[in-house]
UniProtKB/TrEMBL annotation:
GO term, biological process aspect, one: lipid metabolic process
Protein's UniProt keywords contain Cell membrane: no
Keywords: Signal, Storage protein, VLDL
Organism: Eurypyga helias
Protein name: Apovitellenin-1
Functional note: Protein component of the very low density lipoprotein (VLDL) of egg-laying females. Potent lipoprotein lipase inhibitor, preventing the loss of triglycerides from VLDL on their way from the liver to the growing oocytes.
Family the UniProt entry places it in: Belongs to the apovitellenin family.
One Gene Ontology cellular component: very-low-density lipoprotein particle
First and last residue of the signal peptide: 1-24
Gene Ontology molecular function terms on file: enzyme inhibitor activity; nutrient reservoir activity
Length: 106
């Protein structure tokens, strides 16, 4: 029991999220820059499964996901991945522009 509890805590800390955030976000949203949507969806699935088996453990997971350390870490990851996503979009625009002007001659 202790090992499974530790595993669930580790998964939630790794994929930490709050439930309302997951259900309000679409994984396939086109202008989405948050790369943590898929881990959020996985965390929500884990929470729902655990909550069906034991509501007390489910509540514990919700409380663990809302601890300040987890929230700060998650916000940092969201900020940094957003920056990376913007840079990747800019790079793709430059490559597309180069392709059209240099290679295809438009």
């Amino acid at each position: 029991m202790l090992q499974s509890r530790a595993l669930v805590i580790a998964l939630i800390l790794l994929l930490s999220t709050t439930l309302p955030e997951v259900h309000s976000k679409s994984i396939f949203e086109k202008d989405r820059r948050d790369w943590l949507v898929i881990p959020d969806a996985i965390a929500a699935y884990i929470y729902e499964t655990v909550n069906k088996m034991s509501p007390r453990v489910g509540q514990f997971l919700v409380d663990a996901a809302q601890t300040p350390a987890v929230v700060v870490t998650r916000n940092f990851l969201i900020r940094e991945t957003t920056k990376l996503s913007i840079l990747a979009e800019q790079l793709m625009e430059k490559i597309k522009n180069l392709w059209y002007t240099r290679i295809l001659g438009y």
